[in-house]
Amino acid sequence: MNKKKYILPLLFLGTSLACSTIQPTSSDVSSTADLPKETITLSTIDSSLQEISTESLISKDSLAFLKVNPVDIRWDLEDTINTTFSTNLDSLVYTWYVKNTTKTRTYHSDSTLLQTEYIPDSVYIKRLEGIPSLIDLSYNKIVRNYIELYSKRRRNQVEMMMGLSEYYFPIIEEILDREGLPHELKYLPIIESALNPMALSRAGASGLWQFMYATGRMYNLDINTFVDERRDPVKASYAAVKYLKDMYKVYGNWHLVIAAYNCGPGNVNKAIRRSGGKKNYWDIYYYLPKETRGYVPAFIAAAYTFNYHEEHQLFPKPTNLPAACDTLLISEQVHFDQISKVINIPKEQLRELNPQYRSDIIPANKSYALKIPIEYVAQFIDKEDSIFAYKKDYYFSIKDKVVNPRDRYQKFAHVTPKGKAKIYYKVKSGDAIGLIASWFHVRTSDLRYWNNIRRNLIKLGQKLVIYVPKDKESYYENFNSMSYSQKQASLGKTSTPVIASTNSNTVSNNYVYYTVKRGDNFWTIAKKFPGISNADIMRINNIKDDGSLKVGQKLKIKPIS
């Protein structure tokens, strides 16, 4: 009894001291944070969102979030797991950097535990209560579904992510700790990208934290031809922390902040209004976009699974990411091949540690960070001059940097394929990128890359660079003097146009017409009509903008012969 009398005051004293270390100053706290919780209205949330400007996004704020939440148990909620979430989980984790190496830790496996054994709700609740978390780790049937998804049906993928977390979590935790945010937010990249810094969503979101282009630029991430800092684990984590801080100033509730991270504050505000002004995540659950509803449950399930993986016999799979790295500042243009050849470091390892560099090139317009394993640092410093000088003219030709402003199709620097000869082909009427690629037996993507072609647009008379086998150089050069039918004959095809008999094609007024469908572009339409190019279709229909197609639009394709 005497012990309790003294320990309890000390406990409160410790809490008081902890709070004082992160208590925001009067200059740092917004008007929204000063309001009592019950007085924050929808109009306050709306106005707070409008007040977040570029200036406020880069400020450093402390947040008064230190509140330990009990587990919120809701038995009135039930839903199925989003199938897109499960599919993405499969595709994201089987990526470029999951390879075999040694484990950093040995775990004891108990084969007597059966994964099919039913775990009572009370056990899950007890375990969630045992996780030290400032974010409410609620429990309900939806959360249970996601816990079972991770611990039973997606065991292999979870073990891969656990292996990756041994490299990425320390980076993220340090940044969260420095900025005064809950460490549990480190589980967000698991839901966003499966800890894959190269992940790219269908909507264009990229990196561990899945930033959209506009949001990345808003938070000062550098995105250009050579660099995409949305893929940089360190810089993207700092940007994510700033975004989370801004959203916490608006909502003051981590569940709503996490939901806003996924679908945007606009959708969260609409859900709050449609619910009658409720600000509990589970109360607005069915008003959120369907793809966002499982986001918070998945976050809670990830926190549970990573904390209780041994109880479910889940153990990290090894990765080839090194245990110790160092960072060097590079101010001169360099290619990963130059570094790899001089200090004998695998180029794949450079890519894995530096996913922000899109083309294996570190540009020279400013200083950029290069992360390498600690054992290569001394070699890099000793041989730095040799690295930058190694085949410099080969990787960075001065000629390819001088651009003629009158030439829209000016070539750019690329590496000549080994064992290939360079020839030129002059574009003729009826040609299309796909046809030319098939005649010269090259990939369409290579043809576009060699000639810096975007959207498959070529013009009559344009000279295309094509790399062909050296022993067939003269054969392919003859294609410049061949007719369309002769070039088609080289593939064993007839040149007689074949009009596809589909509902999209009609014949009237001496023309063949095509009705535009969803997903069509001028090149895909031209492929349906041999002998017709995308430029021909645009010319016949007097269209100047190649991006102006609309579903249902009728296009003249060619006169009836």
Q: Report the radius of gyration as a whole number of Å.
A: 29 Å
Give the helix level as a range of percent: 40-55%
Strand-residue fraction? 5-15%
Backbone structural class:
mainly alpha
Strand arrangement within the widest β-sheet reads 9-10-11
Count of individual beta strands: 11
Structure write-up:
With about 550 residues, the chain is mostly helical. Helix content is about 40%, strand content about 10%. The protein has 26 helices and eleven strands. The protein has a three-stranded antiparallel sheet. Helix 8 crosses helix 11. The longest helix is centred in the N-terminal third of the chain and has 24 residues.
Supply the key terms.
561 residues; mainly alpha; two-stranded parallel sheet; 26 helices; 9% strand; disordered N terminus
Q: Secondary-structure map with pairings?
A:
Elements (H helix, E strand, L loop, with lengths): L1 H21 L8 H4 L7 H10 L2 H4 L15 E2 L8 H11 L27 H9 L9 E2 H13 L1 H24 L9 H6 L19 H6 L14 H19 L2 H10 L1 H10 L15 H4 L1 H13 L17 E6 L3 E2 H8 L3 H7 L7 E2 L5 E6 L3 H6 L1 H6 L2 H4 L24 E7 L6 H7 L4 H8 L11 E7 L3 H5 L6 H6 L15 E4 L2 E5 L6 H6 L6 H7 L13 E6 L2
Parallel strand pairs: 1-2
Antiparallel strand pairs: 3-6, 4-5, 7-8, 9-10, 10-11
Helix pairs in contact: 3-11, 3-13, 7-8, 7-15, 8-11, 11-12, 12-13
